[in-house]
Amino acid sequence: MIDRQRKKIIGVHFPNLYLWLVFLSALDVVLTRVILYFGGLEINPLADLVIKHGGQMGMSVFKFTIVAFVIIVCEYAARLDVKTAKRLAVAGCLITAVPVVWSSCLVIEMIVTFQPGMEPEYPHGLDDVFDRKSGLPPTLPSGGGGP
Question: Is pLDDT of 121 > 80?
Fold first, then answer.
């Protein structure tokens, strides 16, 4: 949006590209989590280190810190040259799309080659909750205060 009196841009320069960047990054986090849950490996050594030390929350914070950095760089670059900044934002989306496409292929392969009984058990006895056939409420094993 442009303020006509001051000729300044109000908001960000490329909101649609940033929306795609955030969407693709979130999809990357979700697909990575699915693949890791079913025994896959993280092939990015830096991301693997973050996951080992920070877990799922660390992975999410790491990914969205990168997204925030890319958006800040694009907005700063847009002050200097809008065309170059737009190319940078598009490049960020395309680079983020590569692991999403790869992970999607891996998940599709996992679905096609799925063998029942090979999936890991849910933690804290939740297999009993999902496999329970009766109408009675499930009982969780005791062993701690809360989640």
Answer: no
Mean pLDDT check: name the lowest of 36-45, 74-83, 127-136.
127-136
Contact 69, 10 (CB under 8 A): no
Rounded-to-integer distance, Cα 36 and Cα 135, Å:
33
- Name the β-bridge partners of 9: 2
Torsion of CA 45, 101, 30, 38, to 10 degrees: -70
DSSP the chain: -EETTTTEE-S-S-HHHHHHHHHHHHHHHHHHHHHHHTT-----HHHHHHHHHHHHHHHHHHHHHHHHHHHHHHHHHHHH-HHHHHHHHHHHHHHHHHHHHHHHHHHHHHHHT--TT-SPPPGGGHHHHHH--SSSPP-PPP-SS--
* Position 2 pLDDT exceeds 60: no
